[in-house]
Amino acid sequence: xxxxxxxxxxxxxxxxxxxxxxxxxxxxxxxxxxxxxxxxxxxxxxxxxxxxxxxxxxxxxxxxxxxxxxxxxxxxxxxxxxxxxxxxxxxxxxxxxxxxxxxxxxxxxxxxxxxxxxxxxxxxxxxxxxxxxxxxxxxxxxxxxxxxxxxxxxxxxxxxxxxxxxxxxxxxxxxxxxxxxxxxxxxxxxxxxxxxxxxxxxxxxxxxxxxxxxxxxxxxxxxxxxxxxxxxxxxxxxxxxxxxxxxxxxxxxxxxxxxxxxxxxxxxx
Amino acid sequence: xxxxxxxxxxxxxxxxxxxxxxxxxxxxxxxxxxxxxxxxxxxxxxxxxxxxxxxxxxxxxxxxxxxxxxxxxxxxxxxxxxxxxxxxxxxxxxxxxxxxxxxxxxxxxxxxxxxxxxxxxxxxxxxxxxxxxxxxxxxxxxxxxxxxxxxxxxxxxxxxxxxxxxxxxxxxxxxxxxxxxxxxxxxxxxxxxxxxxxxxxxxxxxxxxxxxxxxxxxxxxxxxxxxxxxxxxxxxxxxxxxxxxxxxxx
Amino acid sequence: xxxxxxxxxxxxxxxxxxxxxxxxxxxxxxxxxxxxxxxxxxxxxxxxxxxxxxxxxxxxxxxxxxxxxxxxxxxxxxxxxxxxxxxxxxxxxxxxxxxxxxxxxxxxxxxxxxxxxxxxxxxxxxxxxxxxxxxxxxxxxxxxxxxxxxxxxxxxxxxxxxxxxxxxxxxxxxxxxxxxxxxxxxxxxxxxxxxxxxxxxxxxxxxxxxxxxxxxxxxxxxxxxxxxxxxxxxxxxxxxxxxx
Lengths: 269, 250, 244
Prior knowledge:
Chain A is an all-alpha fold. Chain A has helices spanning 2-13, 15-22, 24-50, 54-69, 72-95, 98-103, 120-149, 152-160, 165-195, 207-215, 231-260. Chain C has a single domain, classed as MetI-like fold, CATH 1.10.3720. Chain C has eleven helices and one strand; from the N terminus they run αααααααααβαα. Chain C has helices spanning 2-40, 45-59, 63-76, 78-85, 88-91, 94-120, 123-131, 136-166, 170-173, 183-194, 197-226, and one strand spanning 176-177. Classes of the chains: A mainly alpha, B alpha/beta, C mainly alpha. Chains in contact: A-B, A-C, B-C.
């Protein structure tokens, strides 16, 4: 009995498990930052798509269809690599001399000085940006549709009051757009939450990596508790964790929609 | 805007350059006990982490040990995310084409096959079996070249994952470093046994560096020579491999 | 240019694996989804609860975790179940367990689409069928199903493309056997050799894009056939909503 209690208490005091619990911060950070950026990119994309100037419209459309046409994981891996190489190329144009260029034996970076070190914080930020870019393309469509759903009469009334185009856009159009965009954005949020499970692919020691390491069979007492393959139990915990996050998000979006929907005809919802 | 960008880039470069001078970053896998693993505090520990500390003390440099997945450990070294690999990596001609190695810090050690006890596997005439390896290791290359024709070679991300599949009976045998398997076999209480002849591949384990890091390589080599001479290295091998060796001292 | 063509050829065997994973899981997922959708709509509270719970759990958690969980779970039953039955080599093979997890996953998403369509079937048509004296079975066969599939088809097309995209993570979670490598593993291995992220990942992306377009085209043909009784069959647009 005492042994059992001591065993289960071990899950609260064992350093490896504490690191696992702490690694939830990476997942939460990536979800929140990725979600925020997705809305920003979505707004930019929708503005581009609505633009009167056709090249901008084209850019908006290309962004939203290309990014959605390839798997999220592909873009998720590609963007941080491409960004790193882009920065290193920029650094190379400033820092490399012919001698250092000649001295470089590896394929990349161009010279030794033009090397940008990526640690967990950098990867985490890049991962969030690429989540934002990928799901911003989805948000672009949602927001584009929502902007068109705002009743024309509202905008005409605003113009009749003598508001400038900018005022109409910010005070009326975008304000009223949210109520139409929220259901779609809630979908995008759920996608982002689920995509945060991919962080370990970018060398971030996230919850998935720790679940694998902690659950792997262990034979050596020096390493930790000796046990057989326990991985599925750890994955089950993550499975339940994500379902709970979905549940909470759904509730939160429900409340948000009710609040945003105050004073708007129910047919709009 | 352009000026700002360039300043930012220059600052970043300066930051990384000074950082690089201050600390040497050593990458390890953290899933290859007793070479390297994550201890109960969640920090890297093991033979190579102790050795890294000894080398850095001897060479009077500051070191920092970080973890990186095995399958991308060489690419990320080349990309400059760290300066040294110490992850039970054997020195091979193929790897020497892309990276440099210090002198070995673990003597050439045979790779061995293990199987569940009493399975009655004959390695010499292995056919129609499922052979587990860790992807990107010398054993994976060996199995691909010599066993793949008549058997199924299954590669895993970590050695522990392969062990899990062997334990669950999804593999017939595993080919891995003898020094990794020995503690497993002796701790398994007779569940696993060594089978077949040992295979001699690789030239011992060394620390991997980029080819342009001649200065750092010299520092590491000098420190290793000193540690071999004063017996520190053999002491660490004895400590982490249960006094089994192999040792450098004759 | 030559390099690019050589690259295309290099990826050609890899795309077969992605197409296989999707093609193997679409039909089974479809059938399972129909039952789940009917189950969710069932008057029996137990069946309804179970279907609802299943759909919620598999839509609410990442596919990546589902892969890891199902594989390690299957592994832990190996000694007691699969081994004695002699199907161990089959059950734990990525070419089996990959589609298995994809089926479990896509069935939940597809069921939600079908359930939505089921609720949108015009009441009047069902009432008319009942007035004609049709049995439950006949009602489903002649009234509910044709309506349901027409309503659900655009969203279902979308889901199939998503499923195809999801095949990209199969080998990130499962062991690789011999030379059986899909587009992502191929791209990653080539990248690790020469650091040309732009070339390798773009070619993989091109393959994904091309197959997605083919799926859209084929499913569009089916949609036109489904809607052939309409005066002007609405053509299907590339990327209708693209949200799962």
